Amino acid sequence: MKKISLIDIGSNTIRLVLFEYTKEHGIKEIRNIKTPARLAQYIDDDGLMAEAGIEALLKILNSFKQISEKYSISEIYPMATAAIRQSKNSDEILARIKTELDLDAKIISGETEATLGFEAAVHTISYYDAVTIDIGGGSTELTFYENKEIIYRKSLSFGVVTLKKMFFEDKDHNDKTAIKQTKKFVEEELSKVNWLKDRKVPILGIGGSARNIARIHQAMISYPIAGVHGYTMTKDDIHDVYKLLKNTDTDNLDDIDGLSKDRADIILPSNIVFETLLDVVGAKEFKFSRKGLREGM
After folding, report:
1. Cα–Cα distance between 9 and 294 in angstroms, integer?
2. How would you classify residue 102: left for phi > 0, otherwise alpha for psi between -120 and 50, otherwise beta?
3. CB count, 10 Å around CB of 199?
4. CA 203, chain centre distance (Å)
């Protein structure tokens, strides 16, 4: 048996997943812990991550290292994505992780991130052809695969935290002007990905924002089965969730069943991205994968 610890340093959330592996049974998840970090919000106008963000990161990583050691796991793999990838002081951040915690964190490219998400989804979802989307805090990864082989991949330099910072800062989560501006921006960005248009294949949603929208819809229809892996929504279903979020005042978001408190202020932008992608691709189905970057790795 082999045990490994993967730390996914995302722009919105940092997650620790402990796996054990045997040839007979493959990969088994034995622990899964997440902590909201919002690292993307610590990047200033000069492109540098502020000291407060670095300290928050180090504190979380130290906690995750201690948990890993309690499980007698010595192989710890911290993977950094958009927030650190986009920081001009990324070398300093990695050096401090090494010096202060003796952890070797690695930055993965947007294209690698997209590929790893594809690898996880394609091995756990039955579609032979699909577009995948993994929207994080600071980037959005897209792939198109055919006959379970990746054809195109793309990393876009915006995520849900980025969209909030750009359009919803100091505004209600359902501000009409902010929504309009977000829709226009997302449409423009997706239109630049020329291999997306009219693919007419299903969409696979990867990541926390996608899963949260699935959970909200399951609560809306009193879906009787636990878990979102393989759960399918139509374009109308996605729009029903959008309407619920848009028509709920910010102070009442806690009343929405299925909505994670740490995503309440950023869930609407992610829904806008999914709806826009459905239109661009001409997709009839949106299916959710619980497997993503970590399982792909």
Report:
1. 11
2. left
3. 18
4. 15
C-beta atoms surrounding 221 within 10 Å: 9
| Amino acid sitting at position 53 | G
Measured CA to CA, the distance from residue 17 to residue 239 in angstroms comes to: 32
Residuewise pLDDT in 10s, the chain (297 residues): 899 999 999 999 999 999 998 999 888 999 999 999 999 999 999 999 999 999 999 999 999 999 999 999 989 999 999 999 999 999 999 999 999 999 999 999 999 999 999 999 898 898 999 999 999 999 999 999 999 999 999 999 999 999 999 999 999 999 999 999 999 999 999 999 999 999 999 999 999 999 999 999 999 999 999 899 999 999 999 999 999 999 999 999 999 999 999 999 999 999 999 999 999 999 999 999 998 888 888
| CA–CA dist 28, 38 (Å, integer) | 28
| Nearest of 185, 180, 183 to residue 156 by alpha carbon | 185
Residue 35 — φ and ψ, nearest 5°?
-135, 125
Question: What per-residue string of b and e applies to 44-65 under the rule 16 or more CB within 10 Å gives b?
Answer: eeeebbeeebbebbbebbeebb
CA gyration radius, the chain: 19
Neighbours of 146 (CB within 10 A): 13
In whole angstroms, what is the distance from residue 111 CA to residue 118 CA? 11
> Rounded distance, CA 121 to CA 119, Å?
6
0.85 surpassed by pTM: yes
* Neighbour count for residue 222 (Cβ, 10 Å): 7
As a whole number of angstroms, the distance between CA 14 and CA 166 comes to: 22
Q: Terminal CA-to-CA distance of the chain, rounded, Å?
A: 18
For the record, the structure tokens of 181 come out as: 């501006």
Helix%, strand%, coil% for the chain, nearest 5: 45, 25, 35
